[in-house]
From TrEMBL:
Gene: ispG
Pfam families according to UniProt: GcpE, GcpE_C
Entry-linked PANTHER family: 4-HYDROXY-3-METHYLBUT-2-EN-1-YL DIPHOSPHATE SYNTHASE (PTHR30454), 4-HYDROXY-3-METHYLBUT-2-EN-1-YL DIPHOSPHATE SYNTHASE (FERREDOXIN), CHLOROPLASTIC (PTHR30454:SF0)
An annotated Gene Ontology molecular function: iron ion binding
Protein name per UniProt: 4-hydroxy-3-methylbut-2-en-1-yl diphosphate synthase (flavodoxin)
Cofactor details (free text): Binds 1 [4Fe-4S] cluster.
Source organism: Kerstersia gyiorum
Reaction(s) catalysed by this chain's protein: (2E)-4-hydroxy-3-methylbut-2-enyl diphosphate + oxidized [flavodoxin] + H2O + 2 H(+) = 2-C-methyl-D-erythritol 2,4-cyclic diphosphate + reduced [flavodoxin]
């Protein structure tokens, strides 16, 4: 029986793409004439955090620079001791001398109220403060400490992220809510009460900050947990109850593929629903690992979802019995590394190059087709195939490469394509 394909056709194409971005206030994070916009329709911002001793200003400035060059648009530093607070202005000055235009966010716990008031130069050098209400004491002491920090933010006109964390949730609030839960006819599970307490803590502290005098457009919220489904539930709830911009991140996500997969699973669901204005991927670095990996993962999540573009994307097949040679894998890795390493230069010289798609395919099955769909692509010979590699540019076959210099020749073709398509001269001539 032959299928009537016409009867299966839809009247309209099925919708795709992320949901409408959640409407929020817009927060401006500024320093020395520069600013990063968070929320209010601005692109989702990538941020990261150093793991150096902030009391070592040179080491910290070097890592901030590396994170910024990788694409971090805000960098958070730990401010936990008087020595660390004293060095924050030096870190800012060093970054300015190196031309590193990235805002510094101060991460405060336990003694932030003292450090911000006792070291005003630190308070001024930072572009934003991160406050954890659960780590500020209890009762009146907690409120006094919170008031001091918010008053400093008001004095220097600094935005604040009020970040609650399930590992340091306000014990008094949690105890009260558990008591209330026990009086319910059908008590909730303890995990549900905890999620509700996180949301209530974040919003109530934000409202308290506004009562003290911090404008509502200077507040960002976060509710960090380390389990995927908890994070999704908490942020869905939080986004429904307020219009503050939200910072997303799976705290203590873990190391390697586990941390990457868990963070991607949680954040992708929320971003698809239009929730989230800044993100950080909290990866545990492998010994000697590159801290900038968390920045690259954050960028790749946003770019894979079509929310932003940071660097040309490389499409490559996974390999199979047709591709017993590792040449195509090595070429794909080489091209991907080359494109990312070029971006600090290309970003200014070749506007729009970050949207380019490159295909490096390993055999004739999908190779020519994928290469035609990319802006520029190469279809390498698989095992037993004719030893030639056709190159496709804008869907057209332009040249066939052979021999031992395929990698070098293809890279040269990519360089020429970037210059012709994205060069400022080409852009200017097109606009005439």
């Amino acid at each position: 029986m032959q299928t009537d394909e016409t009867s299966l056709m839809s009247e309209q194409p099925y919708p795709m793409g992320p949901g409408v971005r959640r409407a929020t206030r817009q927060v401006r994070v500024s320093w020395l004439g520069h600013e990063v916009l968070v929320g209010g329709g601005a692109p989702v911002v990538v941020q990261s955090m150093t793991n150096t001793d902030t009391a070592n200003p040179i080491e910290t400035a070097i890592q901030v620079k590396a994170l910024a060059q990788a694409g971090s648009e805000m960098v958070r530093i730990t401010v936990n001791t008087p020595d660390a607070a004293k060095e924050v202005p030096a870190i800012r000055e060093q970054l300015d001398r190196m031309g590193v235009n990235v805002p510094l966010v101060g991460d405060f716990h336990y003694n932030g109220h003292k450090l911000l008031t006792q070291y005003p130069e630190c308070a001024q050098a930072l572009s934003k403060y991160r406050i954890n209400p659960g780590n500020m004491g209890g009762g009146k002491k907690r409120d006094d400490n919170f008031v001091q920090m918010i008053e400093v933010a008001c004095k220097y006109d600094k935005p604040v992220r009020i970040g609650v964390n399930w590992g340091s949730l306000d014990h008094e609030l949690m105890a009260r809510m558990m008591d209330e839960n026990n009086r319910r006819a059908t008590p909730w599970e303890a995990q549900a009460v905890m999620r509700d307490a996180l949301v209530i803590s974040a919003i109530s502290n934000a409202r308290r900050a506004e009562e003290i005098g911090l404008p509502g457009n200077r507040i960002i919220l976060s509710c960090k947990v380390s389990h995927v489904q908890d994070l999704i539930a908490v942020y869905r709830d939080l986004s429904a109850r307020c219009d503050y911009p939200l910072h997303l991140g799976l705290t203590e996500a873990g190391m390697g593929s586990k941390g990457i997969v868990a963070s991607t699973a949680a954040l992708s669901v929320l971003l698809q629903e239009g929730i989230g204005d800044t993100i950080r991927i909290s990866l545990t670095p492998e010994p000697g690992g590159d801290r900038a990996r968390e920045v690259i993962v954050a960028q790749e999540i946003l770019q894979s979802m079509g929310l932003r573009a940071f660097t040309p994307m490389v499409v490559a097949c996974p390999g199979c019995g047709r591709t017993s040679s590792t040449f195509f894998q090595e070429l794909a890795d080489s091209i991907q590394s080359y494109l990312r390493n070029q971006m600090p230069i290309w970003r200014a010289r070749y506007p729009g190059v970050e949207t380019m798609n490159v295909a490096v395919m390993g055999c004739v099955v999908n190779g020519p087709g994928e290469s035609r769909h990319a802006d520029i692509g190469i279809s390498l010979p698989g095992t037993g195939e004719v030893p030639s590699a056709p190159v496709f540019v804008d869907g057209e076959r332009t040249v066939t490469l052979k021999g031992d210099t395929i990698a070098e020749e293809f890279q040269a073709i990519v360089e020429d394509y970037v210059e012709r398509r994205y060069g400022l001269a080409a852009t200017s001539s097109e606009n005439k």
